[in-house]
Backbone:
């Protein structure tokens, strides 16, 4: 019995020594150093359609054991905008021992423009119209394309079936968190539903300060309530547009038919 105890003790000592030697050998051979990622510029300018390869331009990585591991660097995440057109990109790399390193740098999108709006029909209605502008206002973004579904339209003063000029607030946000806001007039008039309809090619345009615009050229035609084209003789245009100063302006188009019914359409102009 005593000999058995001795043998068990010796076996335990042998196992302990073997495990210790193995552990020390593994620990010695394991790389505990963290790879280092380097970027040649703290901020780069790229297209908003840039590929991952372009995002990785100028990014290198080195590990003491593995050497150059630049080909293993990945784009871990791209943030929403921290400033208009500027994101933070997080890069990551992992060495052969699963040690991970990260670094962040800024990316600025060249030629980026905030979302822009368009309007598909005149924001001028009769008190007898059923007013629903949810499908009238559109938004387009250079990154996301058509983002009309994200538009939010509100008004603090609008009253249905009451003549007057009301303010509508329009906003839209793209996937990068960039918000475009716009305030436009909504005109409600006590006019007949049979009044002439003045059709324009656009009902909202963006223009540069100092640009020359022929507002008459936006008139496509004039139709009656049955959508038959009628004469545009007598059409008059009234506007407060000041092309020398930034702002939101309106161009009003009027036409009175032989029955005395007056048609009215509005082109909104954003200068600057």
Residues:
């Amino acid at each position: 019995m005593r000999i058995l105890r001795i043998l068990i003790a010796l076996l335990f000592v042998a196992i302990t020594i073997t495990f210790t030697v193995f552990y020390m050998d593994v620990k010695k051979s394991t790389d505990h150093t963290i790879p280092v990622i380097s970027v040649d510029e703290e901020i780069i300018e790229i297209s908003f359609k840039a590929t991952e390869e372009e995002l990785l331009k100028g990014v290198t990585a080195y590990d003491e054991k593995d050497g150059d591991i630049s080909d293993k660097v990945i784009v871990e995440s791209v943030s929403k905008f921290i400033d208009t057109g500027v994101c933070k990109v997080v890069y990551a790399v992992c060495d052969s021992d699963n040690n991970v390193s990260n670094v962040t740098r800024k990316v600025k999108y060249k030629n980026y423009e905030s979302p822009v709006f368009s309007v598909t029909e005149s924001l001028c209605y009769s008190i007898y119209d059923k007013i629903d502008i949810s499908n009238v206002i559109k938004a387009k973004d250079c990154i996301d394309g058509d983002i009309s579904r994200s538009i939010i339209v509100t008004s603090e003063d609008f009253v249905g079936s009451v003549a007057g000029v009301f303010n509508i607030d329009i906003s839209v946000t793209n996937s990068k968190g960039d918000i475009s806001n716009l305030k436009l007039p909504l005109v409600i008039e006590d006019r007949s539903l049979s009044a002439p309809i003045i059709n324009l090619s656009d009902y909202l345009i963006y223009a540069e300060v100092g640009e020359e615009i022929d507002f008459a050229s936006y008139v496509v035609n004039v139709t009656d309530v049955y959508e038959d084209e009628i004469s545009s003789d007598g059409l008059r245009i009234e506007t407060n547009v000041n092309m020398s100063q930034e702002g939101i302006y309106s161009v009003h188009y009027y036409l009175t038919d032989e029955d005395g019914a007056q048609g009215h359409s509005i082109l909104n102009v954003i200068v600057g």
Notes: The first strand starts at residue 36 and ends at 39. Helices lie at 2-29, 52-55. The longest helix spans residues 2-29.
